[in-house]
Design a protein that fits this description.
This protein is an alpha+beta fold. 46% of the residues lie in helices and 14% in strands. 27% of the residues are buried.
Length: 250
């Protein structure tokens, strides 16, 4: 009887932590999927972003978020969760702010290629999110030898996890007992594969839009953003989304 009583007490004590772990796992995956959906939306709307004139209202405010949520449902086969956690509200607000920050660029009729590609949007969103002090960090990163933007270099945890994912073929990796910048954290890494449009910059000179209509002797291996193309292939590991929810200082 005494052993049963101790076991019952242990279950009572552990259950809140187990429930919190489940909640954190669900929340962190939803945040990652929000981030991925916004990148996909930017990816799909490059023609609209880069056109010199026209109606671009779908890139701003509530309509932008509604379209990102529609992208979320199509991409992940489920509606964006109705229960609004405050961190998801922060994410929504930051997404809107990033697009507003780019309003002048997006409407500039003298610039054809705006450069607001998914990686740039993701970097701007991450940087703005870092200023909010809400215990949430999200970034698009890759292995040190693949990364272009040195500000997106992976930390030690991300390097180890990316290797585990590549070796074991995991769809993602979640660590509820991780550390982020010296603070207890729940961390998630979701790998992403290269899509067709990614190869416009990261593929071969043959896929470079700057070479369209030119003789092979005139082709360049410099992409439209000014970087040397890496000759990667469709479906290759392209880095991933790293999300950390960590304890804030009192």
């Amino acid at each position: 009887m005494l052993k049963l009583a101790k076991l019952f007490l242990l279950l009572i004590l552990l259950s809140p932590f187990e429930a919190k772990g489940v909640q954190d796992s669900t929340l962190i995956r939803e945040l990652s999927q929000m981030f991925q959906s916004s990148m996909t939306y930017i990816f799909q709307n490059q023609p609209l972003i880069n056109q010199r004139a026209g109606d671009k209202s779908s890139l701003f405010g509530r309509r932008f978020i509604a379209d990102v949520k529609a992208t979320y449902q199509h991409q992940f086969g489920q509606p964006f969760a109705e229960q609004e956690h405050w961190l998801k509200l922060v994410m929504v607000r930051v997404m809107i702010e990033v697009m507003e920050d780019n309003r002048t660029l997006i409407f500039d009729e003298d610039i054809g290629y705006k450069g607001l590609i998914p990686a740039i949007f993701a970097f701007q969103l991450s940087a703005k999110l870092a200023t909010k002090g809400q215990g949430l960090n999200i970034k698009f990163t890759s292995t040190p030898n693949m990364i272009r933007n040195q500000l997106n270099l992976p930390d030690a945890w991300e390097i180890v996890v990316m290797e585990k994912i590549r070796v074991l073929g995991l769809k993602d990796y979640i660590d509820p007992q991780a550390v982020f910048e010296g603070k207890p954290a729940t961390r998630l890494f979701t790998p992403l594969k290269l899509k067709r449009l990614c190869l416009n910059c990261h593929g071969t000179p043959k896929q470079n839009p700057l070479n369209a209509g030119k003789a092979r002797a005139q082709w360049t291996n410099i992409d439209v953003t000014g970087f040397v193309m890496e000759n990667w292939q469709y479906g290759d590991f392209g880095g991933g989304v790293s999300v950390s929810i960590y304890e804030q200082d009192e």
